[in-house]
Structure formats: C-alpha cells, structure tokens
C-alpha cells in the first residue's frame, strides 16, 4: 500500500469520520469531487483486539483511497497501543485519536469526548499511538471540553504537543452540547494562536461558503467536512473553486443525479449492495434536501427496494434544472454516532 503525504492547507479539505456513512464507497465518491484526505469511520480499539467482523469492515480500502487516516477510539493506553499495532500491520500509516464523539455509549466507557475531562489521560493515549506509528503520523480530534464552562482544549493541545502528534482537529462545541446550538468558531482562532501544530476546523461547515468564511475568520490550516459532505459530496470541489475566486457549479438536480449514479456504481464495486441499498435510502434524501420537488423524491427513495428504482430516481433528478436552497443550521441533523 502506497501513501501520499497528508495535505494540510486551506484548499485541501478533508472528509470527517462519520459513523455509519464514511465507508469506502462514500469516501471514494468524495475523493472524486475534491476531498484531499479522508478518515475512516470510528474504529474501536477493543474491537480491533477482539477481531470483530464489523470492525474489520470499517478498514476496507483500496489503492485509490489515499491518503487515509484511521480514527481509533478507546480509553486504555495499552489496548490502544495494541490496536494501533494491528492497524499499522495492515498497511495503514496514519492514525487519529477520537476525543470528540459525544455519543453516550462512547463517553460512558471513558472514550471520545469524555477524554476532554482528563487532558493528562488524553496525552497518555496519544503517546501510546505515537510510540507505535511514529511522530508525524498521529492526529487528535478535540471538543472544547466536557461543558462550555469546563473548557480544556487549550490545556489538551499543550499536553499533546509534547507527545509528538502531528495535527489537531477541533469541533468547537462542548461534549454536553452535542450537535445543538452553534459551533464557537472563535475557539478555533484561540487554538491556532495557542499551538504550533496544524489545526483543522470542524463544526457548522454546512456549505463551501461556510468553510471559506471559517478559514478567513479563524486562520486555521484546513477544514474537515462532516454533515456538509453528507448533503453535498461536491462541497470539496466547491470550496476549491471559491478559494480560487470562481463560482462553484450550482447544485441542481442534474448534478445530484450524477452523485447518485456515481455512489451506486461505487457501492456495486466496493460495497455490500443489498445492505448498502438500505443505507442509501437515508443518504439520497440528504442529497436532495432543498431541491424543488424533493418531497416526492424522498418519499420514493424511502420506499425504494431495488437498484433499478435508484436509477429511476436519478432519471427524475436529471430533469430538475433548479438549484437547491442552501440549508440553514437546523436543516442538517447530525447522523447518530458522528465522530466530530
């Protein structure tokens, strides 16, 4: 397996780890439309040790799926070190430690955003990964802290800088906030000023315009799309167009039809067509959100039971030349288990 260096610049956007969504076919779809780097879905350190079949599927990849970062979560440094060894033995080179997931089943085990309550333990876990992967190969994804009044992200960043981690990603909400309210972008600028490590922004990047504004206002090194990419896989190339001073292609029905057909073809080649058809029933309604006539398309997609119907829906989309209305903050519900 060959590896390209990790891109860390404003015009090289990343795809976030999205539990249940950022599988190999979706990553390849996003890469085809400008994603410069992708992360796997969250992988359990314990799941790796117990050789869970589900965990193994999360690591499915191919030569075109590069550069790729494997995101691990866990609370035991020894377990995480062993899990890292197993991941590296499979040919992966880059790791990301999740300290941002606020989902109850994750934080109850002391993992994910629960680690923001213990910056010293977080640093210990990061060091365990760096000791296996080497300096320059490990990142950490952070939240502001456990609550808005208990912000520990600056302390965590300072401790992590001493462990040899190579980059930090910040979703500027507290763990208690989950995905509600607004992301506090000012904290991104604070983190950028407080550390010499590259900083990637995540949170409330629902459109390419949002990302361009975030880059301008915070001075971060790069951005990572989560919910924005689930709605619009071309958000990556749109950002590149904006940063180059050009207007991105409108998100019309015809453009969305292309995404649907590409995704279906990638699932046929790399996915599990029967299982992934059910997943697509939740993905396509996100693609068409805000499109004139989308209510009927969503209704048909929910009832879709074979791939022929998916292609019929793509044909319907081809006839819609109007563009989608840009989503508001409350229009994009976070997928269960989103890792950001």
Automatic annotation (TrEMBL):
Q: Which UniProt keywords apply?
A: Flavoprotein, FMN, NADP, Nucleotide-binding, Oxidoreductase, RNA-binding, tRNA processing, tRNA-binding
**What EC number(s) are associated with this protein in UniProt?**
1.3.1.-
Q: Where does FMN bind?
A: 71, 141, 171, 226-227
Q: What does this protein do?
A: Catalyzes the synthesis of 5,6-dihydrouridine (D), a modified base found in the D-loop of most tRNAs, via the reduction of the C5-C6 double bond in target uridines.
Q: Which cofactor does it need?
A: FMN
**Catalyzed chemical reaction(s):** a 5,6-dihydrouridine in tRNA + NADP(+) = a uridine in tRNA + NADPH + H(+); a 5,6-dihydrouridine in tRNA + NAD(+) = a uridine in tRNA + NADH + H(+)
The protein's name: tRNA-dihydrouridine synthase
State the Pfam families in the record: Dus (PF01207)
Task: Say if the entry is tagged with keyword Nucleotide-binding.
Answer: yes
Keyword Flavoprotein among record annotations: yes
DUS-like FMN-binding domain mapped to chain residues: 15-306
Tell me what organism the protein belongs to.
Alkalidesulfovibrio alkalitolerans DSM 16529
GO MF terms here are: flavin adenine dinucleotide binding; tRNA binding; tRNA dihydrouridine synthase activity
Question: What family is this protein classified in?
Answer: Belongs to the dus family.
| PROSITE patterns named among the record's database cross-references | UPF0034
Active site positions, chain numbering: 101
Tree of life domain: Bacteria
């Amino acid at each position: 397996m060959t590896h390209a260096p990790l891109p860390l610049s404003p015009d090289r956007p990343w795809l976030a780890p999205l539990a249940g969504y950022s599988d190999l076919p979706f990553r390849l779809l996003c890469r085809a439309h400008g994603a410069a780097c992708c992360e796997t879905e969250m992988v359990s350190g314990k799941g790796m040790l117990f050789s869970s079949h589900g965990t193994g599927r999360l690591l499915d990849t191919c030569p075109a799926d590069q550069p790729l970062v494997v995101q691990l979560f866990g609370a035991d440094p020894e377990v995480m070190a062993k899990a890292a060894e197993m991941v590296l033995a499979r040919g992966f080179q880059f790791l990301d430690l999740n300290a941002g997931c606020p989902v109850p089943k994750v934080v109850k085990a002391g993992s994910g955003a629960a680690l923001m309550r213990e910056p010293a333990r977080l640093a210990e876990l990061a060091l365990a990964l760096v000791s296996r992967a080497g300096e320059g190969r490990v990142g950490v994804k952070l939240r502001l802290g456990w609550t808005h009044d208990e912000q520990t992200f600056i302390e965590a960043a300072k401790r992590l800088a001493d462990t040899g981690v190579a980059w930090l990603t910040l979703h500027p909400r507290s763990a208690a906030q989950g995905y509600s309210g607004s992301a506090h972008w000012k904290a991104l600028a604070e983190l950028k000023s407080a550390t010499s490590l590259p900083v990637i922004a995540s949170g409330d990047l629902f459109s390419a315009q949002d990302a361009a504004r975030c880059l301008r206002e915070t001075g971060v090194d790069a951005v990572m799309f989560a919910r924005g990419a689930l709605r619009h896989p071309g958000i990556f190339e749109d950002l590149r167009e904006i940063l180059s001073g050009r207007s991105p292609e409108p998100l019309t029905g015809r453009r969305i039809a292309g995404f649907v057909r590409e995704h279906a073809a990638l699932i046929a080649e790399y996915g599990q067509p029967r299982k992934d058809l059910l997943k697509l029933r939740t993905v396509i309604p996100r693609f068409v959100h805000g499109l004139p006539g989308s209510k009927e398309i969503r209704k048909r997609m929910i009832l879709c039971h074979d791939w022929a119907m998916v292609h019929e829906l793509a044909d319907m989309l081809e006839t819609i030349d109007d563009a989608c209305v840009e989503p508001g903050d409350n229009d994009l519900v976070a997928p269960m288990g989103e890792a950001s």
